[in-house]
Amino acid sequence: AAAVDWARVRADFPVLTREVHGKPLIYLDSANTGQKPASVIEAVDDFYRRHNANVSRAVHALGTEATEAYEGARGKLAKFLNVRADELVLCSGTTFAINLVAYSWALPRLGPGDAIVLTRMEHHANIVPWQLVAQRTGATIKVAELDDRGDLDLEGLRALLTPEVKLLALTHVSNVLGTVNPVREICREARRRGIVTLVDGSQAAPHRPLDIAAIGCDFYALTGHKMSGPTGTGVLWARREHLEAMPPFIGGGEMIKEVRFEGTVFNDPPHKFEAGTPNIAGFVGLGAAVDYLSALGMARIEAREQALLDYATAALSAIDGLRIFGAPKEKAAVISFLVEGAHAHDLATLLDLEGVAIRSGHHCAHPLMQHFGVPATCRASLAFYNTFEEIDAFAAAIDKVRRLLV
Ligand code: PMP
Of 3.20.20.190, 3.40.640.10, 3.40.50.720, 3.10.350.10, which CATH number belongs to 42-294? Predict the structure, then answer.
């Protein structure tokens, strides 16, 4: 494969030329939300300027164009993820996707005596919906724990997969530790025991080649805004048999074939789950994002980010009093850390004044913070558009503000 000119790639992202507080922006918060290349911004702009109409309703030219653009995005996503387009429900993001499974799949099926298995490293989006289901059905939640490195305790997880377990929901990649879970092996094991699996792919889809079919899960959720697409876009992939069997989650227009007061005939999946006017422009943008990522190549993106991660890990490890959380076997480009004697928020606030954008807090992962016995960490998350020079500047900035705080 031809070498990529990463400086040119970076130049595709308009926001990265910004200054904040008089300093060049160093954006290290891509796990929170990713920046957008010009092609995505232009696709959204072009949609509103030239094609704007509602989908699946009007026979006029613009209506047809809008429908083709929206369904075209579904097709691009299907190819990108290696699944069937009619198994992709387009929605507002991972949070909605997981809630859809919770309400449409789990709620009617689970009852007292059933169990759901989660892991200690889940984002709240993959915890709270299951707690709501558990409260309403009487099912219980069991938690797979982590080892010292921040990897899943696979033996412990296996031991949890007992006959009362109906669902295993776990993240593909941890948004805090960067841990890449062996979801293929885990889902295969669960499937052998008749347990349905949901994988939260929010932090995987933007960073590595994805083949959902090969993972062999039942549900895969992801969010568009972390993978160079607009906010308010996301995808739930589900096996067709589940989509056929599940009742709709949200009712309204677009999701029906015929409505009578005596009873309504729902549309076929995936449309059955897409009530109301969708985020059409958002998905046009997400389609453009998929084109952009595909042209770069996810394997190249993964290699680039791995190199940046190794470099950043070495640079941060050299800083006095800095502790990195987790050292999993396979790790995505996320570094959670604390500096001895400095509060996470203070550090992040002072780094902001240096132009460095990182996140501080619990990262929507309270149970993981409880595991490490800290209320918060700082988190630097990298993307392919970051540079080695930015990491040098980031490390120098930590060293500078550390002296102010400690
Ligand atoms: N799961 C994980 C692992 C995440 O990192 C995030 C976003 N931080 C979510 C779920 C939720 O995604 P969204 O807010 O886009 O629904």
Answer: 3.40.640.10
> Is position 91 annotated as part of the catalytic site?
no
Angle between helices 298-317 and 388-405 (to 10 degrees): 30
CA of 344 relative to ligand 1 center, distance in Å? 21
Going along 330-387, which residue ranges are E strands? 334-339, 356-357, 359-361, 377-381
Cβ-contact 301, 207 below 8 angstroms: yes
Task: Please list every protein residue whose CB sits less than 6 Å from any atom of ligand 1.
Answer: 93-95, 123, 125-126, 171, 175, 200, 202-203, 223, 225, 364
**Does the global pTM surpass 0.90?**
yes
ipTM of the complex: 0.98
pLDDT tens per residue across span 218-250: 999 999 999 999 999 999 999 999 999 999 999
CATH superfamily label, 6-30+297-405? Aspartate Aminotransferase, domain 1 (3.90.1150.10)
Distance 404 CA to ligand 1 centre (A): 33
Using DSSP bridges, classify how beta strands 115-119 and 165-171 pair: parallel, antiparallel or unpaired. Answer: parallel
- 177, 203, 231, 334, best to mutate for ligand 1 pocket (most atoms within 8 Å of CB): 203
